[in-house]
Amino acid sequence: MKIKYSIVSFILLLLFFSSHQTSAQDTDSSWSHNWDKEAYKDHGWDWDSDWDWQFSFSGFEHPTINLSYGLSKYSLKDLVTPVSDNGLGELRLGYTKEKKTFRSDYIIKHQFNYASLSNLSYKLGLEEKANEINAEMWRFGFGWEDGYGYKFGNSSVILYNTWGMNWSKITVDDTIINLADREMISLFKDDFHFGTLSAGGIKIRPIPLIEVEAGVERSAIYSRVLFWKAAGSLLIEAAGQGLVDSFVRNVLSSTPAAAPVVSFLLKNGLSFAMYELRKEKMNWPFDSASPVMVDTYRVGVTFIF
User: Fold this and answer.
1) Is the pLDDT of residue 129 over 80?
2) Domain CATH for 194
3) pTM for the whole thing?
């Protein structure tokens, strides 16, 4: 148990560094050593917000409820028998924070930190198929969503990227005939297994209280956690996302209107590439077993209070 808690703590720390990057602007000699908060706010540096690395819901402004429905598809390298597609039902509870960027009044910075509970099942609007592995999964975890958007009066359009970690329990029927498939599935079924996810999508907020959204999510479920290999793989992804964040801040400084689109394409492109590389090695680039991959197309409605 101590090892499991150490793994979780370490991954949390990695996440904090990757999703709460500090933003600093160019300084000149006249105030390079002046650490007054108000002076830095004039140059776009919100000291209290940009240096808030803790996972604390209390620092966020608006309680938020998100309800989602989606269609999910499983895959596992070398699995012969296909797994039934699942419907997804998910509840997310968390807090949303938004602020205008210093270069433009109509470009906003968006953050949504949440805890989630999900059920993936062929019973959620789908039919059971005799020639497929009928699977069901319960999942709980935490996620960190951020991005930029365009504000139009009381309405807005937000382009986002999400990174999350979760624990999933898969149950399957006992009618798997292929012995090799049965052995592979046995590595993942019945117990809770650690995994990560990434998602990208668009949110449309017609009025301040309600958002509607559509997005694509990719998640990987590990058969077991190899601490150093998992840490190394996640550090590579965190470093890449950090470089993207830095580049997007420069775009925001020079061409604010392009920042939401550039951030959306680069951050989600990097996430997609990492999960493609992890299809065969869950801890890419290090040798490791293949994970169960779950691709989900989802729609949802969000209530912001």
Assistant:
1) no
2) 2.40.160.20
3) 0.78
